Queue: 2 jobs
Job 1
Amino acid sequence: MRNLLAFVRQFRGFVAFATLQIIALYFYFQYMNYGSAELYNTSSEFNGWINKQKSAISDYFHLKEENKRLMSENAALREKQPVSFIQLQKRVYYINDTLYKKQFEYIPAHVINSTYTKRNNFYTIDVGTKNGIHYGMGVMSTFGVVGYIIDASEHYSLVKTVLTQQFNLSAKHKKTNFFGLLKWNGKDYKIAQLTGVPKDAVIEEGDTIVTKGATGFFPPGINIGIVNEIHTEAGDPHHLINVKLFNDFAATYNVYVLDNMMKEEMKTLELKIKEENEDE
Amino acid sequence: MNNRIVRNSLRFIVLVLLQGVIIHNVDINMYIHPMIYPLFILLLPIEINFYLSLILAFTIGLSVDVFSSTFGLNASAAVFLAYIRPLILKLVQPRDGYENVEEPNISSMGRLWFLYYGGIMIGLHHLWFFALEQFSIFSIFMILGKTLLSGIFSLLIMIIAQYIIRPQTNRAL
């Protein structure tokens, strides 16, 4: 009888343990599988405020490098301005025509909290819903892709970077347009993996990998990295490509959030595929 | 009694802030992610109610999660740590038990004892944490490597922390 009581007492302890585990793991896997960060939502304002204070101090340490980086980007942009061109053919006119419509808007932001050595690395940036940020906007730096927004509060938002499990951005080989999924195996923060590219594709080391623009997070052709190493295993119909990322995740501060103004249009169009399939 | 609650609450706040604001942001390399917040669970009073310790562990884990975008990973590991604590305490029990010992820290139990106790506790906590984080049997070496290297650093930080902030009560008289 005493043994039974002891057993029941122990079992009750285990039930309490299991209940708390289930709650914690529910949060964790909910996020891992669906990308929704429920836990983050409730606390982001406070957390963001603390990070902002912290970053207000640490910003000064890398002002110099950041200024250099911005200067070089400004120079590159200035070169593209009309004033730095000489008109060669005087009879060509610029007409404000209907051929082009702006699709992407760039919202500048600063990274105020970041890691790069964890298995899942997130950035907190200092823009939020008040600046028009919402789920699914791409984030890039001067050099290339950083990640995309998974959650936003009023003044802050959370970026899922390339350095996470199940990042799964569709990317393509710039020369041949063969495409695959960009993932990260958690081993080296400078190297990501491009999977699912068929062996027919002729890919060499040093080739550029860019975004495909499939999900509407990024326009096609944004730099991701260069091919560093190509593994081909017998029996596997795909290449496994190691991509050296252009963006240095250990030192990202200035980023741009990309607002795709035609994303809704793309989504509604693609929903028709689903409906079509359901009809059959 | 009151004193104990105040001391533990203070420790809770200080450790969460230390972990979330400073230690979490120190990127040493891929294998070394030291953690200091488990010290709170290690140092809970010995005859604390088991359910209370589970809930406290869950709370501190979740607080750390909020700071480090891990969404429940730390909560899970902390609850696990609180669950196994009574077993480990029994395992490393000195010959004359825990008489007159309020909380199992270095000054009450000695350096060597704490090394055993902390080593086992931190090892299991980190193993649980990194195994869940990787969630793949293929990266077993990565999990073990991270556990070992991070564990050594965590234990070191916890021992240093105890020398810096010694509870007043143990020194009095």
Job 2
Amino acid sequence: MLVVVVSVVFSGIQQLLLGEYRRAQSNETVATHILTETFTRRSLADDYLLNPTTRANEQWHIEQNAVLNAAQGYNTKAITPEETGLLAQIRDSITQSSKIFEQVEQASEADSTSKVWLEQRPIFAAQLNEIGQTTLSSATKLKEANTLHAGQVTRHISILGDVIGVAYLAMILLIFILIGRSAGRLQLREAEEAAILGSIGDGVFAIDTNKRIILFNRMAETLTGFSFDEAYGQPYRDILAFIDEHSHRPITGFIEHALTGQRHQMPANTLLSRKDGSVIPVADSAAPIVNDKGIVTGAVVVFRDITKEREVEQAKAEFVSLVSHQLRTPATAVKQFLGLIREGYAQSKKEEKEFIDSAYTSNEEQLQIVDDILSVAKIDAGKLALNKESTDLVALAQRAVDQLLGSAGAKKQSLTYRHPKHTVVSSVDPLKLSMVVENLISNAIKYTPDGGKITVYLEDDKHHVTIRVTDTGIGIDAEGIKQLFTKFGRIQTDYTAKVQGTGLGLYLAQQFVVLHGGKITVDSKPGNGTQFIVKLPKEQ
Amino acid sequence: MAKILIIEDDPRLEHTYDTIFERHGHQVVRAHDGEEGLMVAESENPDIILLDMLMPKMHGIQFLEKYDVRNNHPNTKIIVFSNMDSNDLQKQALELGATKYEVKSRFSPNELAALVNQTLAGRDKPTLS
């Protein structure tokens, strides 16, 4: 727009100046013409005065007309006062010369050889010469004025040319800057988009309507095993081998649907066959690429590796299955013991009481499992709170040891407790901390062969209390240690069913210790026993 | 009277089964894990085995694989009696020759006794339910 306005303005000014220049030049030519014709007329007047023939007379009149015509050809548009004056002088001198020449003609007609003629002739010559001189002088001034004006206009045109040049240069520069900025922004945007696409944690690729790959981000490279250079421009089916998990048939429908303008989810159980032949489970969707005119120009496909999601789902399913089993086990015991009474199996009051006690204990176990699961749910929701009270930890650990002496005894294991003689008082949640200590001792009993040795140590210094549970059991390998405190850690090894348990005990123990501001660590090697260390800050 | 092998790691349940079957006049032999169960089964040659699934040392499925009831003990019946309510496990167990797969918590003492007696009488064919 700016360019158009500036161009129109410049063009107008230029036209005006050029018109002015042409007028000056034309008038300069006219003035020159007047000069030339005036010179000729003067010469012809001299000729006539010397020899007043009809021919010479005609010649003079022709020339006089030529001077007059020349003067009339002067362009008076936008004429200056000086020019007006000079032009008037010229016209006046032409009229004057005509009048004088009429007198010359009359005189010459009377008697061309007479004395009077001969006497008058120099006078006429002088008069004609003088008037001719006036014409010449005015014409010369006009010529000079026009030459000067033409020169000035030329300079103006030149200056305007420079101005236009500079202006156009400036505009071009401005346009380049704007384009540059716009291009810069575009480049920046493209770079940003490329960076964003590259950083997306999901695989992204796009195809045109010819189904050739036009975009392939870094994660797509990682997931497929193909590089961008290998993928770009290739038919997508050659690079992205989506197959059905069960039939292993190619899955392309969701992409083809996207090319018809509909967004589509990748079917469940889709695998991606990678460049190296390995497969990974993937999920997500394909969407049409629609331009600003609403035309589908391709499709963009997002896909992500759901191996971990599947593992979590699997672990959750196994967890639910295991928890159900663990809840059913004491519930079954409750049902069986009560059933024995209800269906008349008890043969004495003593046996009946024994069944009731067993049902009661089983019910407690069942409730404990429910509590554990609720604790996990609370931890997951970040809502598990501690009910702290000033507690003697020496006594707390003693109670835990006492409770489990029976279990250790059943496996002919020695369970020893070593502790300071003084009380070790700290502000803790006694129920949760008891659970931690009982869990560690109970695990030590479970994972230590019959006849093994389990020792519980309680030590303190000014700022910390440390409880260590050591055993001479089967130990744990490095991989096992990694899974030890995870919620589903037990699940992976549970199928081999070495020991029963929900796999929640150590997870909860760790969470409880962490809530107390402490730390639980493990030191173990397969076959060399295990030591769990709980270090808690001492709080008054 | 039949000889029943109870392979059960939970001492409470083992005790209730003991009580029930003895009251019904059966002879009871016991094992507390898969390994021990295999040993006792080989030596005692029971009429029927009440087999748990999740147990120390050897899982119930491993027991079935090793015991190979169809080929080696065609006269022994096996009731998988577990609280693992899993279609996969059930299918696997029945394929490995178990006569039945039942979920413990669904049975009262009398119902359990009836289950064993019916199985011994051969009135039930292997089921997937």
